[in-house]
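Quick one, T. Sequence first:
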Amino acid sequence: MPKKQTRAQRLARQIQAATGLPYTDCLKLTEPSEGSSVRLARELRAAGLADAADRLLAVDAVSTEAGIWYEAAGTAQRRYYDTDHERGERAGDACMDAAEAALARLGFETYTYEPDAEEYHAAYLALSTAGTIPDGQALARAALDMFADDPTWCSDVIRSRGRIPFTYATAATLTGPETPTAVAARKAARAMARAAAVRYSGDEEWYEAASIMVEVIWHASVAAGLPPLEDRPNGRDHLHHFMYDVIPEA
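Structure tokens:
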């Protein structure tokens, strides 16, 4: 074993110890990739928001590690299902415990939308900043990539608080140049504020916030210089069936 291992290699060894899976299989689970959070953090840093970038990267690190452990749990359970079911269950439980421990390191409760909510906080800061400068396309594009193509998922995330209180109220006072990018970015940020304010109640509110998040993605797409809802079939489906193909005037 090499004396100095990468983070991925160390995590692979931990998964191997917990599951008994071959090291090469464990290493495949930990292969690094640049996700949307990393790209957004880079744009935030370039815009002078270094603290926000650092917070986002910290959240991304534990979320990624937890996700790897969750995937390892499923892999182990499938691998041993026919040959040693009890071993698979033990390995799965060990991986789930490790995933929870990873999230707990940053104070996140498990099985909540808290990490995703804080990623949305970062996306909001990016859109808000893009709304104050003439050409914030790169910021808007990075923020756009944070939103999943599932409006109802977005509805749950935007209405979650994260670990600490976060206010979207600043959207009401946003001002900036009248360039198409800046105007659309401000519309997206204000829509996020409206979605975050929708109360938790029943399906009606769930879909209300989901529809507003379709607005967010629409305006963020425009700010990013992209066709609205491009490559987002679920967003387009929601727009058609629940919004009658109309984006409200902001």
